[in-house]
Here is the input.
Amino acid sequence: MTAWPFEHRSAPTRVRAGGLAHGLPVPVLVVLLLAVLAGLSSAAAWQATGGRWAVVETPSMGTAVPVGSLILTRPRPLDRLDVGDIVTYRPPNLHSWYTHRVVAVDADGSLKVQGDANGTPDPFPVTQDELVGQVVQHWPGLGWAVRALPTVLLGVVVLLGATHLYVNPRWRSSVRVVGICLVFAIATLLLRPFVHPVLVATTTDTDGTTMRATVASTGILPTRVSGAPGQHVDLHSGEIGSVALGPTATPGGPAMVNGTAHLTGWWIVGVGGVSLLPMLWVLTVGLTPATRTDREKPPGKQTGDGDGDGDSC
Here is the structure.
């Protein structure tokens, strides 16, 4: 029985193009790009027709328009505004905008406004010159996404370029999964959108022995604010509460509170689902398939001497 020389010819390995991962990310990136372009076009059209948009940064409107809300305003004449309407205005000699509720209309037609969480009306009336517009729509939490967008876009662009130039295609999708998670983590660290208690004031109880902190929750997630050992208050976005800090010191002096996420029910399900998105991405997309050169060196000609690789007769 003779073994004839036999040349191994492996079938060519088909490899999908590597984008963020093989094949799938290209349409995903196209959809994301179209969504960003649509958003920018809508914002430009809104501005061109007199509308304005802003992101709420202070807790003066409480739960009605919490911190992180994206608001849209339209110009309105003063005589078309009523008590209870929410308006945005710019006080004289200031560059900041304020969004408060109309609580009275003065005899001269100017508006008296006040934040829902504030104890007194604003010190100056709102005239037509100061009025930016009436708030016609607001979306809680969406303002955080708008503020994070420049950081996230810059991070993703740098990540895609760096991994395209310096990372082996075999590991490119994995590095990008980790990198995008880090980009979102950096944006979260900079903006603190999820848990962010803000100390509004410190007071003492009527007995004068215990200091209390008045705190506003300006984050998205339900928050437990802790003061003295065993003392806490649970707040949702925009809510204001107080917590005991312990023996009194100097009223208005240094005070420290600690805020942590306090999740129950559907909040646990929602946050857990979002946290699993990177894992689902990896399971769905996976790694770029290895080529033959990644697995083995191309074999040369071999003679069959009992190794079972040759034809025999």
